[in-house]
Amino acid sequence: MTAVTAPGAPTADPARNITRTLVIGLVLMAAALPFLVGKSGVISNFTFLQLSLMIVYAIAVLGLNLLTGFNGQISLGHGAFFAVGAYTAAVLIETYGVNYWLTLPVAAVLCFVIGYLFGLPALRLEGHYLALATFGLAIAVPQMLKYKHLEPITNGVMGINLMKPDAPFGLALSSDQWMFLVVLIVAVAMFWAARNLLNSRPGRAMIAIRDNTLAAGTMGIDTSRYKATVFGISALYVGIAGALHAIIFEFVSPDSFRFELSIAILVGAVVGGVASLPGAIIGGVFVQFIEKYADAMTKKLTQAIHLPLELQPWTLYGITLIVLIYVMPGGIAGGLAALWARFRRRA
Amino acid sequence: MAPLLEVSGLKAYYGATEALHGLSFALEKGGITTLLGANGAGKTTTLRAISGLVKRDGRITFDGEAIDRAATEDIARRGVAHVPEGRGTFTGLSVEENLKIASYGRRDKSGVKRDLDLVFSYFPRLKERLNQQAGTLSGGEQQMLAISRALMLSPRLMLLDEPSFGLAPLIVQEIFHIMRRINAEAGVSMLLVEQNAALALDLADTAYVLETGTVVMSGPAAQLKNDEGIRKSYLGY
Amino acid sequence: MEQLIQQIASGLASGAIYALVALALVMIFTATDHLNFAQGEMAMFSTYVCWQMIQWGVPFWPALAFTILFSFILGVMIERIILRPLHNASVLSIVVVFIGLLAIFHSLAGGIWSHTIKNFPSPFPNVTFAGSGYIGAHQIGMIAVSLIMLFALWGFFRFTPLGLAMRAAAQNPVSARLVGVNVDWMLALGWGLAAAVGAVAGAMVAPVVYLEPNMMASILLYGFAGALVGGISNPAGAVFGGFMVGVLENLVAYFGNLTEKTFGIYIVGNGEKLTVALIIVIAILTLKPAGLFGRTTVKRV
Questions:
Q1: H helix count then E strand count, chain C
Q2: Is the pTM for the entire model greater than 0.90?
Q3: Does the domain spanning B5-235 belong to CATH 3.40.50.300?
Q4: Which among C99, C108, C225 is the nearest to A321, CB-wise?
């Protein structure tokens, strides 16, 4: 059995306090950013949108981390919950005029229920079978969004256009800057909740199930209920991320949530470090970065090393993934932790 | 005469844990040597180290050639046949296929045929069950099959890991009787690991007693058997 | 009624392809416990190689033979070079490596041959025969070639020493090594064979779905479903599962059309057939977690 290490467990280690101070400081600095920059244009609205998207994906990756990294279940279909969350927000805001803040809890509850209900039968499936079931979910949801009888609600392949909310209370912020703050606040709350969950009794039970399901069962943990609940919580996180994405991106359509999104979230989780909370942030950055810059990066690289043939962005992506697994099997977070440990031993 | 198998300073590791701490012993050509000791003394690990199934360190020579860096499959082809703990049956294959697979790398067709006949002369029961799925055999039959599979490699040395495990006394007697015949008639040397020390000492000519990964005592089997002090303190009977 | 038979016939034809893909998946799975998500993209890439040969003037069958050989070597090399060093890695790491391979083959094919849809010739003469109304010549050919492949593989595994060694290595790697089988190479050969089978599946299905980098995506999914529903560790079950999924998919579309025509109610159409087929497969799996022909193994604490 692998050792159970809960991240952020209270210890006498002074490094913990330093880490905590550092995290709080960084978050405050990030929160101050929109106010400092204001309308000066030093950081463009577009950049704020990019940063927001990174945080949104980080929340989604965190959701999958809870399921995969801390509970040992693989999902190839979390894009489906992202889609459900996004459509919940879009439909509530556009059709029913609901305040965007209120859409988040609705998306959360809805995704939790769907995730839990999906998790119940799916629990009987393990490993590759669960992978197939979730894979099916990822394929099914975009198709369902186009489904004829749902068209009055979902607007079919056309999707739904939204308007980004303005900053309230007469704050001198652009809507991109304001939404960056919103996303940041939600993300802090979600990460804080995840950390507390993992340090609680149920959290330790979750990890015990990952390490040895059968043994956990004999210790009196109701493994089925736990697994379904974790599936629900995981879906909840991804659903909230989806809702935020719809609000800041101002558009939802079935084709935005294709199978590739599920893969991107999974890859983000593994690349970041699957059983690590900071890993989720790295994963989120990775997902957004690849989506946005894979093309440009590839072109630059091709020129820089004078490659005779034209390198395709996804070829580079694939090679990067494989190399990363070789070099850092524990993801980037795991790799950094190993480097840090080596550095400390030397010092 | 140089020994058939010579082990010196053998260490073995499971992950970072050292399980054998510099074991040394030798095995004469044509002999039967037994490794005795309590659970966890390192008997099975010793066999696994010789076959290259665990990470190892130290010197192992077989018939004058070093095998401590060779791969498991090469060691098997050189004539060291390992009958593993738990019998290692290919449960989904037929009895015939279980035997055939061991002659997979052999080129001498007539030799294979001769060895097959030899196997059937020792274990006629297997011949009756050739087309049966090996997983459906009884424990004793599976042990016979495991020894037969090893014989099909045309080995010079057989490593036997707890051949009596979980079998009824009558079956054990039958199997040990045939092991003696294989040793005498086919000239196969044997390294035997056994929980049942009395049984092993009856069959073997030389014995080593292991304790937590080191040899604590060795000598002719008969001598160990007759020394009540040794029996009481090391062998527990 | 005639339409129903037609649908079942074309279901069997696509089922033959799913069966081949399922078999390729099972071959790697039984030896390594991994499902190769890149199997479809590897097959697609092989099909492009075949197309290129034909473009250069090589007749179909020699081109296919060369493609099979090429795919076999490619599969062996991928196992030896990329996967061998990772044999102790976690399932998740391997999944990501497969995703990486998928991305590489997909983008390479698009980069070399562009993303435009290409016609792929059928090697079978377009003749009419008794029953032509129900099934086309190419579909018959597809089924025939698939069945020949399946029997050839069965014979190889059942009757040749190498086939026996590969089965033994997959079943009990330690015992196999102890009787002198080089298990590492058996795994690589398994990868090679799986890639070769995939190449045949690709070349057979390309005339139907047209050649483009996405052509194997849904086929892989059906093959995956077929393999699981039949029992992932059972080659015969996987083949049956492949055929079953093929027929199922067509029946879903057929009954969807039927209800729309007779009752005027739209329930399912071509857009949803993949979803419905998957839901049925998953439902079967929740009832029979090891698949229809798989054995459940008892786990130890």
A1: 11, 0
A2: no
A3: yes
A4: C99
